[in-house]
Structure formats: structure tokens, C-alpha cells
Prior knowledge:
The chain has about 130 residues and is mainly β. The protein has a single domain (about 20-125), classed as Immunoglobulin-like, CATH 2.60.40.10. It contains one helix and nine strands. It has one helix at about 5-20, and strands at about 25, 35, 35-45, 55, 65-70, 80-85, 85-95, 100, 120-125. The strands form two sheets. Strands 2, 4, 5, 7, 8 and 9 form a six-stranded mixed sheet that branches. A three-stranded antiparallel sheet has the order 1-3-6, with no helix packed on it. The longest helix is centred in the first third of the chain and has 15 residues, at about 5-20.
Amino acid sequence: MARCLPLLLIAAALAACARTHPVTISHPASAGTVTSGDVLFEYTPGQPRVDAVYLTGDFTGWHPTAIPMRDPEGDGIWTITRAFEPGLYRYQFVTYAARWFSDPASMPPESLMSQSDVRELAVAGIRGW
């Protein structure tokens, strides 16, 4: 059994990598904190490919299909641009199979380390906050 452990660990690591779905937030401001206005959320394809992706968070009451993302070119890159007022927002992404996942491009805040799939987006006002 001890000889199998390294192989099991490698298989588990490879399986975890196969399920990773890189997601980025694009905005002129620094990642994670933006000024009020439009924020572009982008889902970059991973394996397996999905048929639908949704953006959800405390700004939607955590409804899993409230904000559908779009893949206009059919290349597996899902995007949505949303306007946000100044404030702190928590968000996640949901696939068509109701699988919730986090934004790996954003680390969870310390206050949410036990809920590591939840990410925060800080939206600052014009005068700061």
C-alpha cells in the first residue's frame, strides 16, 4: 500500500488540474479592486468544456442562474460585463450542471478562508472609500 501512495497522490493532483477552470477579472484598475463602473468577468476554457456559465453573488441573492455569461465566438471563452456601484461584492461562477466554482485568479479574503470558493470584488467610488 505504501508503494501505491505516490501514484495515488500524482493521480489526485492530475485530476485536480483537469478540473481547474481559470477565470479572470479584466478591468483597467488593479485586480480585485476597481472603481465604480463596468467590470468584465472572463471565464477561460478548461477541461471539460461546459455548455453554460453564470455569474452569481451577493448582488444576485446567490441565485445560480441570475446572470448568464456569453460565449459569442463559440471558443469556450465566457464573458459578461456588469456595472457595479461602490461597495464590496462576493461572487462565484456556476456551470450548467449547477457546479459552483471560484475565480482562481483571485485569492479569498482572510475573512472567508473557511469558505475558500467565495471571492470578493471591491468597487471603490470616485473619491475612494
